């Protein structure tokens, strides 16, 4: 009996040893396969292998560390942090894990925790390159540039070619204007690690920022060739070509990404969606729809592609088709309360809201939130509906609820800040944006919002500081230079305005903007001959540039040299007979000197080239009225309204004339008749809304104008956006007004009436810098529109305040 027991025990012992040996063998096999997959840059599959190891032995530190590295490559920062922390818990002096976790803390702007790990690394070894680099990064964030430079150099002395130290030092050199040293630092890092794609990508971006585009393109392409299965590399190459406005190369890069990235379904879908987004934005919605429908035919169960098709239909202003696609997602979903079905229902609500059916939108959102009270998109939509309805307090509650699961979301934080502004809580709006900017240091849009808000609060120094931060991230950002210039112009600080123009010339030597800004600064100083030189330089770089030509003529006229202005315009037209701006400016000079036949010919020549510019119809009609041809003038305005899809300048101009002729009610009745016959006529809705908001003061008319304009926002037409903005302004929703009117100016930057409306919106918001800039553009030249005198009075009041 004893023998049997002994034999049984021995067998159990042998079996245990065999099991342990088998487990160890499986672990080793999984680890090797994972490492091989990392070498092949197949991180998604590598993740699975390392997780297999941890299922066998949850305490395997090497597997946990490899998993963390893999998750980092996949940009799953939360997962990577969890794994690095697990390594540190098991091995508190694991230097690599301490360093990596410190970097992740810095990414989330948790400087305090990052410093603890940096101190621990340096305590373990005063010359530890990872610790020194982490410390240098913290100093850079705290604006101790000299200290950061010293620590980064010390890290490289300790370990030449150190990746993070090289990247940081290169960035610091670039910020301090030492571009040669920046490039040399990165090249040295590449000598130490010739195929390091991260260093290559940083160097490529530096080349791009410095205008060395051939070198940048070569590097981005080399990275793709080196690691062809990494989608991020291909997307970076496409983004580079897109930034260079080379649409053909961008499309080629994205098509190749779709063809090559096929192993992982998730990444394959991401590649397809990137291509579709490009097509929608740059090749037209129809091409995007056709391509996406082909993709779906080959991958019928792909919900992400199906949802993308719905969104493209939305952009293409095909709401019924969009709703049908979203409904099909809901119908196909096995779990009607699952995230895919609820997301589709939320999009149905979005479409309903854009169609003006707020009741339906609220109903659907309520259904989604009943199934999932924490559905982020539904909470954001309900908040936005509340904000539009004039209930910022309810909006704030929902935006905050949405942020609970995504506290650092840039877009939701921006929306929350707008709600605080609407609730007259600018300090909370600033606090919200500052936290979002700290959490998303590369997001320049947040800092742009913050700069605008500081301007509204008349804290121009803080506004400038935010603009400086944007230029650190994107040294070639033209809109930021423009904002910086406007800020200095508002303060009449012409020395700094010239400095901004000079920086812009260096950043974009082949663009007219820097020369144009320099000319404006000289105009502000009343140094008109000097302004002429700059405007001519701008035209030498870009002969068809609109604003430099307009300001050139303005300077000639201010110097009382109309004959020189006219001669210069004739030269421009001789160089390019289709320059409609020159034809228009020449016509305005002829109209001012009562040479009506010549003026009429000039405006007609301009219209032959561009029949979408409202100013031309206005000027031609003014000429016709001057010679007593009122019927022709009305016909010209009506033709222009049709051609420009209801430009506010023409709608209100015609209304003013009809009002003066006692026929305004006839115009309103005409649009009412059109809408009765065709309720979907966007043009009639736009025109009627503008007439009602401009000429009727009763509450019913204002409400009707709001209803009419509700569905115009998504159409994207500058004239429609102007109506949306002006209706919002007239009904007290100033932030919505500014948002819509900013979009309108992007499509029609020279429309004076839109500039007037935007200036008044910014004035109501307290942003005197942008108010003054827009009002100045609104009164430049022949300001002939309803509200022109109001614009001049508002601008004069702003000037007097200074």
Give an overview in words.
This protein has 802 residues and is mainly alpha-helical. It has a domain at 677-802: Serine Threonine Protein Phosphatase 5, Tetratricopeptide repeat (Alpha Horseshoe), CATH 1.25.40. 79% of the residues lie in helices and 0% in strands. It contains 45 helices and no strands. The radius of gyration is 31 Å and the shape is globular. Mean pLDDT is 90; it is low at 1-6 and 12-20.
Compute the separation of the termini in Å: 108 Å
Give me the CATH superfamily of the domain at 677-802. Answer: Tetratricopeptide repeat domain
How many β-strand stretches?
Answer: 0
Q: Over all CA atoms, what is the radius of gyration? A: 31 Å
Largest sheet: none
Choose one word for the global shape.
globular
What's the CATH topology label of the domain at 677-802? Answer: Serine Threonine Protein Phosphatase 5, Tetratricopeptide repeat
Strand content: under 5%
Total helices: the number is 45
Give the CATH architecture of the domain at 677-802.
Alpha Horseshoe
CATH class of the domain at 677-802: Mainly Alpha
Q: What structural class do you assign from the helix and strand content?
A: mainly alpha
Poorly predicted runs: 1-6, 12-20
Mean pLDDT over the full residue set: 90
Q: Which bin fits the share of residues in helices? A: over 70%
Concise synopsis of the structure shown:
The chain contains 45 helices and no strands.
């Amino acid at each position: 009996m004893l023998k049997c027991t002994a034999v049984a025990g021995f067998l159990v012992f042998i079996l245990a040893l065999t099991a342990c040996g088998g487990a160890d063998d499986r672990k080793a096999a999984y680890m090797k396969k994972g490492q091989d997959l990392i070498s092949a840059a197949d991180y998604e599959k590598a993740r699975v292998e390392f997780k297999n190891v941890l299922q066998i032995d949850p305490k395997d530190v090497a597997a946990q560390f490899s998993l963390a590295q893999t998750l980092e490559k996949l940009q799953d920062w939360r997962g990577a942090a969890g794994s690095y922390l697990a390594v540190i818990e098991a091995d508190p002096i694991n230097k690599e894990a301490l360093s990596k976790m410190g970097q992740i803390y810095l990414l989330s702007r948790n400087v305090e925790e990052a410093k603890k790990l940096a101190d621990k690394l340096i305590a373990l070894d005063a010359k530890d390159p990872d610790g020194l680099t982490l410390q240098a990064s913290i100093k850079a964030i705290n604006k101790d540039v000299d200290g950061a430079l010293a620590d980064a150099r010390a890290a490289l002395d300790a370990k030449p070619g150190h990746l993070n130290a090289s990247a940081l030092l290169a960035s610091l050199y670039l910020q301090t204007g030492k571009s040669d040293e920046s490039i040399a630092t990165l090249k040295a890092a590449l000598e130490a690690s010739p195929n390091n794609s991260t260093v290559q990508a940083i160097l490529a971006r530096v080349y791009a920022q410095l205008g060395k585009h051939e070198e940048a393109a070569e590097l981005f392409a080399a990275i793709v060739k080196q690691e062809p299965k990494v989608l991020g590399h291909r997307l970076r190459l496409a983004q580079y070509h897109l930034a260079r406005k080379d649409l053909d190369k961008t499309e080629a890069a994205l098509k190749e990404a779709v063809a090559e990235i096929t192993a992982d379904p998730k990444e394959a879908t991401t590649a397809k969606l990137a291509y579709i987004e490009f097509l929608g934005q740059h090749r037209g919605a129809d091409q995007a729809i056709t391509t996406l429908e082909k993709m779906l035919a080959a991958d019928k169960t792909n919900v992400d592609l199906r949802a993308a098709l719905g969104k493209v239909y939305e952009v293409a202003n095909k709401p019924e088709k969009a709703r049908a696609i979203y409904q099909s997602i809901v119908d196909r979903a096995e779990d009607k309360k699952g995230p895919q079905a609820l997301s589709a229902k939320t999009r149905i609500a979005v479409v309903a809201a854009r169609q003006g059916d707020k009741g339906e939108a609220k109903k659907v959102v309520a259904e989604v939130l009943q199934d999932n009270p924490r559905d982020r998109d539904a909470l954001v939509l309900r908040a936005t509906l509340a904000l539009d309805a004039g209930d910022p307090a309810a909006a704030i509650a929902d935006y905050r609820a949405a942020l609970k699961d995504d506290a650092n979301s840039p877009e939701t934080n921006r929306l929350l800040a707008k709600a605080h502004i609407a609730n007259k809580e600018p300090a909370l709006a600033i606090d919200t944006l500052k936290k979002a900017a700290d959490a998303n240091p590369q997001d320049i849009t947040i800092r742009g919002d913050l700069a605008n808000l500081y301007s509204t609060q008349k804290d121009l120094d803080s506004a400038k500081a935010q603009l400086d931060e944007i230029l650190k991230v994107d040294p070639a950002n033209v809109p930021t230079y423009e904002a910086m210039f406007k800020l200095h112009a508002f303060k009449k600080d012409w020395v700094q305005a010239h400095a901004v123009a000079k920086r812009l010339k260096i950043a974009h030597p082949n663009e007219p903007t820097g020369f144009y800004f320099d000319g404006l600064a000289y105009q502000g100083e009343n140094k008109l001959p000097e302004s002429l030189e700059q405007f001519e330089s701008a035209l030498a770089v870009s002969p068809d540039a609109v604003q430099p030509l307009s300001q050139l003529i303005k300077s000639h006229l201010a110097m009382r040299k109309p004959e020189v202005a006219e001669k210069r315009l004739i030269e421009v037209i001789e160089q390019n007979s289709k320059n409609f701006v020159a034809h228009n400016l020449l016509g305005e000079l002829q109209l001012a000197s009562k040479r009506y036949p010549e003026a009429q010919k000039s405006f007609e020549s301009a219209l032959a080239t561009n029949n979408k510019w409202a100013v031309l119809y206005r000027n031609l009609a003014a000429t016709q009225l001057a010679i007593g041809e009122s019927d022709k003038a009305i016909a010209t305005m009506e033709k222009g309204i049709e051609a420009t899809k209801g430009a506010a300048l023409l709608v209100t101009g015609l209304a003013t004339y009809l009002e003066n002729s006692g026929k305004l009610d006839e115009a309103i009745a005409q649009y009412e008749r059109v809408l009765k016959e065709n309720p979907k006529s966007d043009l009639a809705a736009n025109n009627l809304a503008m007439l009602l908001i401009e000429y009727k003061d009763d509450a019913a008319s204002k409400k009707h104008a709001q209803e009419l304009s509700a569905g115009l926002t998504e159409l994207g037409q500058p004239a429609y956006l102007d109506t949306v903005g002006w209706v919002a302004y007239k009904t007290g929703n100033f932030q919505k007004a500014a948002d819509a009117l900013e979009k309108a100016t992007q499509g029609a930057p020279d429309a004076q009436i839109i500039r007037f409306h935007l200036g008044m919106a910014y004035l109501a918001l307290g942003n005197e810098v942008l108010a003054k800039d827009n009002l100045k553009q609104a009164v430049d030249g022949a300001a002939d529109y309803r509200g022109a005198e109001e614009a001049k009075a508002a601008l004069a009041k702003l000037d007097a305040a200074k």
